[in-house]
Amino acid sequence: MTSYQAYMEHLLHCGVQLYHVPAETFEPGFVAKTDFTKQARLLHIIAGRIRYEFALRSVTLGGGAMLFVPSGVERTWSVTGDEPLSMEWFLYTTTPDDLQGVEPRVSHDVDQGATRQSFERLRQLSVRTRPIDQLAIAGECKTLLMRFMHESVPLLRYREGGRGTRSQLAVNEATQILDREYAKPDVLTGLHERVAVSENHFRTTFRRAMGMTPGQYVLRVRMRHARDLLGSAANLTIKQVAARMGYDDPFYFSRVYRQFWGHPPSDERTNHA
Q1: DSSP conformation letters of 51-117
Q2: Which of 8, 105, 181, 239 is the most buried (most CB within 10 A)?
């Protein structure tokens, strides 16, 4: 499965061919026929609700959500609820060909105003044929796609439900991961993807719920475990304790420890002697 980082790298260097930038409204009860996507597409749900079905997973999204559908996947979709569905999307291919195995991705934390402006610029540019306009089209497509990829999560990790409930579950799951895996130096890397929310939304929600950032939280966990270990395991050197807390550099660990507790780690040994 191609990671989104690999796809982001691919977008930086590839050419982009834009095919279609429609904006349409569909009545309640509309059901699209099942088919295979020939081009990749990025959908922006403006209003109403859509149910998008893939072979392994389906998802229901409302206004403000975006969905990335790669090329070569079987899908169908329908309008759910009593309101019409209003959405815009664009179809594209990349040169060289799209990477294989890219996952569908979802986000509902997009800036509606900025996203609609980007789609409108694409519609205006799509009717022009000058080479400079084609460069502008490629740039606008890449900007939209890369912004979305950065803020989205894989469909298979996406949890439906109310934003507040999902956000709290994500924070709870994140704290459990940090409590359990604090000794891993890279425990913060990709944490938002592991709990299936966008990076910005995760950072904001975590700070609001916990009163601190994820980095500050894992620092507290490490420092408390380090203090306990220094006092109870006299056979371990400070370098070994640092390594068990996820720090490769014992001098950096000592500096962080002093900043956190107000005294160096060696004092714990003196106090417990």
Answers
A1: EEEESS-EEEEETT-EEEE-TT-EEEEEEESSSPEEEEEEEEEEESPPPTTBPPEEES---HHHHHH
A2: 105
Q: CA–CA separation, 160 vs 33, rounded Å?
A: 24
CATH superfamily of 216-271: Homeodomain-like (1.10.10.60)
Q: Where are the domains of the chain?
A: 4-155, 163-215, 216-271
Q: What is the pLDDT of residues 222-233, one digit of tens each?
A: 998 999 899 888
d(CA 164, CA 48): 20
Query: Which DSSP symbol is given to 159?
Result: -
Examine the pLDDT at 268 and tell me if it is beyond 60: yes
Tokens matching residue 124: 């205006």
pTM of the model as a whole: 0.61
Among candidate residues 186, 166, 157, the one with its CA nearest the CA of residue 59: 157
What's the pLDDT tens digit per position in 187-221?
999 999 888 888 888 888 888 878 889 999 999 99
Q: Can you name the CATH fold of 4-155?
A: Jelly Rolls (2.60.120)
Return the closest-CA partner of residue 35 out of 82, 69, 10, 86. Answer: 69
Q: d(Cα 40, Cα 138) in Å, to the nearest integer?
A: 14
Measured distance CA(121)–CA(223) in Å, rounded: 50
* Torsion sign, CA atoms 58, 98, 22, 142: positive
| Identical topology for domains 4-155 and 216-271 | no
